[in-house]
Design brief:
The protein is α+β, with helices and mostly antiparallel strands. Helices cover 59% and strands 9% of the residues. The strands form four sheets. A five-stranded antiparallel β-sheet has the order 2-3-1-5-4, with helices on both faces. α10 packs antiparallel against α17. The radius of gyration is 30 Å and the shape is elongated.
């Protein structure tokens, strides 16, 4: 017979419950955070002001790259070529347009040579070359009216950006018979960084007022609505200060700012939403504010802390990847999650004690209630979610199968995913660097800058170099081989593939070049080589990241529920909830559907690191909502021992709140998704879709259906694991022996009282 955990009843080994007539005394943690609430809020205000100062200018110190593996062959070769042959790695391109005249016209050539000479004299610029110096056909447009001046700006991302800002005004625009536009990798990344900063400010201006309106609709009270918003602002400002400090020690991507804003607002609002809602429920039962705060911290507060841990774990998995683009999101994400949780568990209780019943002040909904029947009290549960839960559980097989099939079907486009690199097509079509790169792609032979470079190190004769060049030229995917250019014991060749710079044949060519036997040490770099190495680095570390997320999630959910089956369900259903996001990413951003409506240019591929980032963020957010639902189900199951009633009660009490939180977070992510940079747009809109699917489909339909099918066996665990959970479990509603001054009675939504135990850390 299957052994099922059954909660102890009073008189059957459970500790004696405190008397209903004796008001419980606040626990140690409650007394700590509410002892001097005014002082706590004043200190928080001072620290926030310091964070504003410390985090100022953080965007100017962030990098716009970070997609490469620093230990890869292509990275080594790129740095060596930059050092030995700077002209081989141009990152600045001046597109010289001669109008109706030919680029070989004497007046045009004279002006172009003068521009190249001036550029060569600029500080921080090296490796200047041009069509008018080399005569290379690759630097001359097919129509003969455009040609290129190429150079390399030295330094890191920030130094290159400063140099570009300094010199660009003197070269951009009309110069006698020619007009000049600025492009190249450094211009693309700098323009991307500038646009992201502007778009982020616009997203905040969009998200904040809409979020405030939604919070007022949820709470009714303007006072209650302002509390979550304040917590979010504190979390964002604090994280900006953390990122500013990190830039002194390591590279941080500018894209991390978007995650800071999204998670700072979204999670802080989620956490504050649940805490304020539970506090108002307790007040509605006649409890005094201090006791209500204590009960709220032992229930919703524990759940918030546990939820923050699960989200932080998902984001921490990105630390296993070598690319600083992904690691930056781990830095920003962990910081903002912990700060949001800390603000919700330290500052918010102090504010609630000071406000007391005034938390319900400025009820904006009264304007719309003059002709309506009286509304139910805050603590009275509605019936819509209860009816929905009952319907789902009565038809559990149908809902479980139908929902699973729907989610899998929505994810099918991801089977056709093609991975690529981030390029100028991330930018709006009107961006100058995008225009330049588009002209080069379409109008120049061989797509300058899109080839492969082979760095040869070690002593070699001219005959050996010539033999190697013949070997390379004989490869089926090679269109042309240039070089070698020799300097001491080093030389380099430029290899132009027949097709696109990063298509499958170009990637195969990288492998072919690396497999050739040579009398010298040959290292391959270039756009396709970077992509090959990036894909290899991610594929090598992805199983470790997935295993880390899965194992820690299984452990944390077990500590919450004491069940063996529920953690497995949580991991599987969370992963299933992300299928719609991944399918939509490929269908929209790779295949180009809705590109006109959403205002982006499809490159025909997905940047390699984006799916990893989106998985970690969306999985953590899904666990966030899963924890809130499971904790309330567990609380009710511990109180009654009725599995089906506990599932209905959990959905009844949290369904509306989870949906409201998801809608608010989706609004924030959609605001981020209004960015003109495609990767940011993809991140914002994709995660918004994942959050809504998780809250409205998985939590509302799939979870109750699956739990109904598994029945009371849902709570089973072998005896050793039961004892482990009894000793270390984090359950908020579990009956547990404790001293009377530390464990006050916990009031449920129905007014019953019981002891709360577990998660001693926040008492």
């Amino acid at each position: 017979m299957t052994e099922v955990n059954t909660p102890p009843r009073t008189g059957e080994g459970a500790p004696e419950r405190p008397s209903e007539g004796t008001p419980p005394r606040p626990g140690r943690y409650t007394r700590f955070v509410t002892a001097r609430p005014r002082l706590s809020l004043l200190v928080a205000l001072v620290l926030t002001a310091l964070a504003v100062f410390a985090g100022s200018g953080v965007a100017d110190r962030l990098g716009s790259g970070g997609w490469e593996d620093p230990a890869a062959e292509s990275t080594y070769a790129t740095k060596a070529l930059e050092r030995e042959f700077p002209a081989s790695q141009p990152n600045l391109l001046l597109l010289v347009d001669s109008g109706r005249a030919s680029v070989d016209d004497p007046a045009v050539a004279s002006e172009a040579r003068d521009l190249a000479g001036r550029l060569a004299g600029e500080k921080g610029v090296t490796g200047v070359g041009s069509y008018w110096q080399s005569g290379s056909p690759a630097l001359r447009a097919k129509d003969g009216h455009e040609a290129l001046i190429a150079a390399r700006i030295t330094g890191d991302d920030n130094a290159m950006g400063r140099t570009l800002d300094r010199i660009a005004p003197y070269y951009r625009g009309a110069h006698g018979p020619v007009r000049v536009k600025i492009g190249g990798i450094v211009a693309v990344r700098h323009e991307m960084q500038t646009i992201i900063k502007k778009d982020l400010a616009r997203a905040e201006m969009i998200a904040l007022p809409i979020t405030l309106v939604l919070l007022i609709m949820v709470f009714g009270s303007a006072v209650a609505a302002l509390l979550p918003l304040g917590i979010g602002i504190v979390a964002i400002l604090g994280t900006n200060a953390v990122l500013r400090g990190l830039t002194s020690f390591t590279d941080v991507s500018v894209f991390a700012l978007n995650l800071t804003t999204a998670l700072g607002l979204g999670l802080a609002i989620d956490y504050a939403l649940f805490i304020v809602r539970r506090f108002r429920e307790e007040l509605s039962t006649g409890t005094d504010p201090l006791t209500a705060v204590g009960t709220t911290l032992r229930t919703a507060g524990r759940t918030v802390l546990f939820s923050a841990l699960t989200v932080a774990v998902s984001l921490a998995a990105m630390m296993v990847f070598p690319q600083y683009f992904l690691r930056s999101f781990a830095y920003a994400g962990i910081a903002v999650v912990l700060l949001a949780a800390a603000a919700a568990l330290i500052l918010l209780p102090a504010a609630l004690v000071l406000l007391g019943h005034r938390v319900n002040s400025l009820d904006m909904r009264r304007l719309f209630r003059r002709r309506r029947a009286p509304q139910p009290a805050e603590g009275t549960p509605g019936t819509t979610w209860a009816r929905a839960a009952g319907l789902v559980m009565r038809r559990a097989p149908l809902f479980a199968l139908g929902t699973s099939v729907l989610l899998v079907t929505l994810g099918l486009p991801f089977l056709g995913v093609k991975f690529g690199t981030a390029d100028d097509r991330q930018l709006p079509s009107t961006a100058e660097s995008h225009v330049v790169q588009e002209h080069i792609r379409e109008g120049f032979p061989g797509s300058p800058g899109g080839g492969l470079e082979v760095l040869a190190q070690g002593r070699a004769t001219a005959a050996q170099y010539a033999a190697y060049k013949q070997q390379v030229a004989a490869l089926p995917e090679v269109a042309r081989v240039d070089g070698p250019l020799v300097k001491g014991d080093a030389a380099y060749f430029t290899v132009q593939p027949k097709g696109e710079a990063v298509d499958d044949p170009a990637q195969r060519l990288v492998g072919d070049l690396r497999s050739l036997r040579t009398p010298f040490d040959a290292r391959v770099t270039g756009t396709a080589a970077v992509l090959v190495d990036t894909k290899h680095a991610i594929a090598q570390r992805l199983p470790w990241a997935a295993a880390f997320i899965a194992v820690v999630t299984l452990l944390l959910v077990f500590l919450l529920t004491g069940s063996v089956l529920i953690p497995v369900q949580a991991v599987v259903l969370n992963a299933l909830s992300l299928t719609a996001m991944f399918g939509a990413v490929v269908w929209v951003f790779q295949d180009g559907h809705l590109s006109g409506a959403l205002g982006f240019t499809s490159s025909g591929s997905i940047e390699t690191t984006l799916p990893v980032l989106m998985f970690c963020v969306a999985f953590g957010l899904s666990m966030d909502y899963g924890v809130f639902l499971l904790s309330r189900i567990k609380e009710e199951y511990d109180r009654t021992g009725d599995h089906d009633a506990a599932v209905r009660h959990g959905l009844q009490r949290t369904g509306g709140l989870i949906t409201a939180a998801a809608v608010i977070l989706a609004v924030v992510m959609v605001a981020i998704g209004t960015s003109r940079v495609t990767n940011t747009k993809m991140l914002g809109l994709g995660i918004a879709l994942a959050v809504l699917m998780d809250a409205m489909v998985v939590r509302s339909l799939l979870v109750p259906a699956i739990m109904r099918l598994t029945g009371r066996a849902t709570w089973w665990a072998p005896a050793p694991l039961r004892r482990l959970h009894e000793r270390f479990g984090l359950s908020e509603g579990e009956l547990r022996e404790a001293t009377s001054h530390d464990v006050p009675a916990d009031r449920n939504g129905d007014g019953s009282a019981h002891e709360s135990g577990g998660l001693r850390a926040i008492r």
